[in-house]
Specification:
By secondary structure, the protein is an alpha+beta fold. It is built from 17 helices and eight strands. The protein is 58% helix and 11% strand.
């Protein structure tokens, strides 16, 4: 039927005055143009009908993977193979008298189809990353870096096949010839190779995962890991800027991961206030009487005083001189108060490190450090808690006849002069 139609067209063109050879060429390329038009029409039909059916089916299915494939346009990309395959199959039948043209067209169509397949594989791999992120293991074992390695290999192989198609060579022969080019390849792909090795070590040792809070001062990074790729790791800093860190740097350099703090259920509060050493003194009976009325330190004052009286009596201590024997001090009672206050605080951990300690005295007074862990980890609420605690501590210091040390200001000097 096809040949009969071609014969009729050739005869009609000949009757119009064209030579038989010219009529044959015009007829053949007219049919080829019609083939292209038909292929485009079939493509649009496939895209409108077939893809509509696929998308409708994916929306109704209970599984999620097909929806992700549709979202990443996997099926849409495959639709481009339909017209190219039709042209590839029917071109030798239409242009059978032009072997060189057939060879050139088939080569071009082959390269086009290889590119479409590569794009489809790329979309499929992107879909795998999205699907994998829905699993719990994705939080600790990201695969984006490995997928990028697979993409590099796929596109490298695809490029070799395209070159082999262009030059009419065996792809295996080109791959074998890359051995002499390996040094250049290693130089070009140095960062991906280091990133791949670093990614394996990070994943195997569970050193970092998306969502971790890390600090890396040498790269000015302090924030949450938002993406782990083959060659880079993106960190969103607390000021909302993005720091990009080479993946391998997390292996070769040091960094701090705050995940341990988050998993522990507590967050450390480590802060001190400086007390004026001139305000530290032995407790008088009046002072002890006043302290014994303070809730968190009442039992401590009474029990400690009882034990000290027994000790001093047993040792026949002369109580007329305060330095003889053992005495309570206002700073000791204050430390006991802080322990009681913080142990009874609803947002402070009792079962984690809990210290109220004195540090080395300096020219700025004697530092009294609070070293505890808060049950609150969220940054803003944690800072509020820390501030609330020290608001109370600073306000209660005078109640124990102590003074907070503070360097004199200009106002202090003016009062002194006046």
């Amino acid at each position: 039927m096809f040949k009969n139609l071609a014969t009729l067209i050739i005869n009609w063109l000949t009757s119009l005055g064209l030579t038989e050879n010219t009529a044959q060429i015009v007829t053949d390329y007219t049919f080829f143009a019609m083939l292209i038009v038909v292929s485009i029409i079939i493509y649009f039909i496939t895209r409108k009908v077939f893809l509509a059916i696929i998308h409708h089916a994916t929306k109704k299915s209970k599984t999620n993977w097909d929806d992700v494939l549709a979202q990443k346009k996997f099926f849409w990309i495959l639709a481009y193979l339909v017209p190219s395959y039709i042209i590839y199959i029917f071109t030798p039948l239409i242009l059978e008298n032009y072997p060189q043209t057939i060879s050139a067209i088939k080569t071009g169509i082959s390269i086009y189809m290889i590119i479409i397949v590569l794009m489809a594989i790329n979309a499929f791999l992107n879909a795998i990353v999205v699907i994998y992120q829905n699993f719990t293991i994705a939080k600790s074992k990201p695969i984006k870096g490995y997928i990028q390695v697979v993409k590099i290999i796929v596109f490298l192989v695809g490029s070799i096949i395209i070159l082999a198609s262009l030059f009419g060579k065996n792809p295996l022969g080109l791959i074998g010839g890359l051995g002499a080019f390996s040094a250049v390849l290693l130089l070009v792909f140095k960062d991906p190779i280091l990133g791949f090795v670093g990614g394996i070590q990070l994943s195997a040792n569970n050193m970092v995962a998306p969502g971790d809070w890390i600090s890396m001062p040498q790269y000015k990074a302090d924030g949450t890991v938002v993406d782990i790729a083959l060659t880079t790791i993106k960190v969103q800093n607390w000021d909302k800027t993005i720091s990009t860190i080479p993946t391998y740097s997390l292996i070769s350099d040091s960094f701090k991961n705050w995940r341990g703090m988050e998993e522990s259920g507590g967050r450390r509060i480590k802060r001190s206030i400086n007390l004026d050493m001139k305000s530290i003194k032995f407790c008088t009976p009046d002072m002890l009487n006043k302290y014994s009325k303070i809730e968190y330190v009442k039992d401590y004052v009474e029990n400690t005083e009882k034990n000290l009286i027994e000790y001093n009596t047993l040792k026949n201590i002369d109580n007329s001189v305060l330095v003889n024997g053992r005495r309570q001090t206002n700073i000791g009672v204050f430390r006991a108060y802080l322990r009681g206050y913080l142990h009874n605080h609803p947002h402070v951990h009792d079962d984690m490190t809990f210290l109220i300690r004195q540090l080395q005295p300096t020219e700025k007074g004697i530092p009294l450090e609070i070293y505890i862990f808060s049950k609150i980890q969220e940054w803003a609420k944690y800072e509020d808690l820390q501030s609330d605690i020290f608001d109370h501590v600073l306000a209660v210091v005078p109640e124990f006849d102590l003074k907070v040390f503070q360097n004199p200001s200009g106002d202090d000097f003016r009062k002194l002069i006046n």
